[in-house]
Amino acid sequence: MQRSPQPHRLTLALGFALALGACSTTRTSLGNAEEADAAAAAASTESAQIAAADAAEAGAAQVRRERSVRGVERKVAMAPPPAPPPPATVGYAAKQSLDSISVTGSRVSANQVAPAAVMALQPMASPMQPANTEKYAHNDDNPVHRTSEEPVSTFSIDVDTGSYSNVRRMLTEGVRPPTDAVRAEEFVNYFDYNLPAPASREVPFRVTTELAPAPWNSKRQLLMIGIKGYDVPKAEIPPANLVFLIDTSGSMQDLDKLPLVKDALRQLVKQLRPQDRVSMVVYAGSAGLVLPPTSGAHRDDILGALDRLEAGGSTNGGDGIRLAYSMAKQAYIKGGVNRVILATDGDFNVGTVDDNALETLVADQRKSGIALTTLGFGQGNYNDELAEKLADVGDGNHAYIDTPMEARKVLVQEMGSTLLTIAKDVKIQIEFNPAVAAEYRLIGYENRILNREDFANDKVDAGDIGAGHEVTALYEITPAGSGADRLPPLRYGQGDKAANAGDAKELAHLRLRYKRPGEDTSRLIQTPILRSQLAATPSESLRFATAVAAFADALRGGMQIGQWSWNDIAAMAKRSLGSDPWGQRKEFVELVEQAGKLTSADGVAVQVSE
């Protein structure tokens, strides 16, 4: 594809950095000219360091932009944004208190925001950066447990889906995803399985279970646990107080970043009601308020603020988070939906950059009743690890937006589940009967495992469920006496199993704890899982969930699915398409075929018979 010549961005950025030394008073024009002159000397060191980070950002962005144009032009089909009109006059002034924001008359654009009250400066970044600096947390597959030794499995539920859409983006572009980018539970939970819903909101969700033979080893079994949240009609969703926290740093210039952020949030804005409120905070080298709390009835004002955003500068995410929570507190709606929606590539490089410090900041703020949703964008420098962790500790959810269609799925189709929490700190505990189940293995949820004692401890944080959410978990079980054990026998035996064998009719006992919004004491649901539930033929939902879980395992190396091949995975998925109004299951089959091509030694395409 031919492109017109462009000036070297790094040269321009360095030139701009040199000019800042002579223009520092302009960068600090928050008050009158006398105040700016007095602050210039103190700000000169800050300006130089931010300028250096800006220059490094510009150099790295050029490499990412080339990749973005190739991938996004084909899939997103989105034209570059038009030149922005002159910035509108909007008011803001951040006080040091997190609980108060005053509004004054200052002019703001994405490149021209007020410095935060406090900024922890970092060493200057080197302009030389790797072409790909994406960051993923490492997790090993859950191990196989011998039931007689460890009969109890405890974990927190997870409603995130970002791993699947991020991996989809890579496969669509012909890139083999790294192992750590694949989280099996987020693959499985990306899809709906038509689980039965609860009858009322009094008990906010319904738990169902299904048991069938494992397709890759008929001597083993798969246990599917499904949770369906009460689906609150849109008209009954309480008023929403939303803060759009948007990364407008230089790393967000690519087509699949800030332009796609704008497209995604436009779709959400169109769903707002007059009783809803929206604030808009942006952050680059520092954070600023672009839009004070505005009624959903003033849709044009909100869309206009979005349209004026531009990308440029370094990335001070910490100050942006502080300012966003301050706005959310100021516009807090008692009994309503109070949430910060962070849209970013996660590439924080100025101010508070330590992941643990950012997690602590968000964890402290969740006590105020304000949740955090993170929306990941872009490639090349995407920090998946941080985006997921911030959502986890912020009592929210994480999604990755790779196309306008995905934005519609997350922010329109699933708006209720994205915004409205109906149950907090949801934990699952399964106690397996050692007389019936010799071994078990939880598929996915590696970073959600809890200690056994955490289950009844209401101080331990866990996942939340939104209105209409479905959560699915799978266990692979080795029945006692099946001969399919994977752990070697113990030299000195396994003790007396009869003493704690329980009811021989039961395979396991399921316990689930949750809190209703506004409550601090958890409630308990429990039910036995009977051996008689074993079905010779799994349902369509279990078949498709099995194919998705196997796909995730195959991308991670295929260590848990025996001799099952890409053909086997695709064939099972194709036989289980069922109702597919959005084409998501059909797209999954295509991804399996693409993954087969990328991983096969000879590049032969996977063929799936009709």
From TrEMBL:
Coiled coil location: none
Top-rank taxon, per record: Bacteria
Pro residues biased stretches: 79-88
A Pfam family assignment: vWF_A
Chain residue ranges for the region called Disordered: 64-88
Chain intervals with Basic and acidic residues compositional bias: 64-76
Transmembrane segments: none
Domain VWFA: from-to ranges: 241-419
Official protein name in the record: Ca-activated chloride channel family protein
Lineage, highest ranks first: Bacteria, Pseudomonadati, Pseudomonadota, Gammaproteobacteria, Lysobacterales
